[in-house]
């Protein structure tokens, strides 16, 4: 896989996701009053999942039109457990929660970090991954530590953990927020920004596919866990997802996926 070949297809998918969020037509995954999404999926044999289209290794839409990545493995395993066909909906950091709130998707599997403020508006499952944030710079950059970010322009995606970190912990840096990871990478490549803050896994994927960038040698920022997101108020669906992850996280399939996309075994933290 090459990050560069994902950018065009991923950008198109992000635009489609934005259009979907703005759409005012009836929601595609709405349920009748009191009906759980679990019941709907088991009846319709269809699962609608919000995923990233441009954030390797979590989720990308390849030039062939196929989704692939760490989150895609989880989504497919979930669909298989329900005996359902899967429909992917491309999402961004900013519209993950709106897609849930408006019923456009049944579940979001898109590197959703367990922030307290998010837990006030969306239900989150037990974790399926652990993650921290890092800073990516062009090779040869004089940014060697987080202290060097003062006065520099730093890219992040809107609605992401890095965007929050930049605001709260690096007020002397100049945050430049983009709608998609691909846009942030292009801004760094074209020297419109001095650095890019992203999750370690996404940053590692970018570095693996390009010899232009390097990760600043410093401890990861805001280590956290990552979960599926679902609309508030559907305890039956949340219970099923938690049970699915309890079994999945200790499976060979989970360990294989972790090694393929993140280069390590499933951490004990999430088992």
TrEMBL record:
PROSITE patterns reported for this sequence: PROKAR_LIPOPROTEIN (PS51257)
Signal sequence region: 1-30
Keyword annotations: Signal, Transport
Presence of keyword Transmembrane helix: no
Domain of life, per lineage: Bacteria
Keyword Membrane recorded: no
Domain Solute-binding protein family 3/N-terminal intervals: 46-265
Family designation: Belongs to the bacterial solute-binding protein 3 family.
Protein name, per record: Transporter substrate-binding domain-containing protein
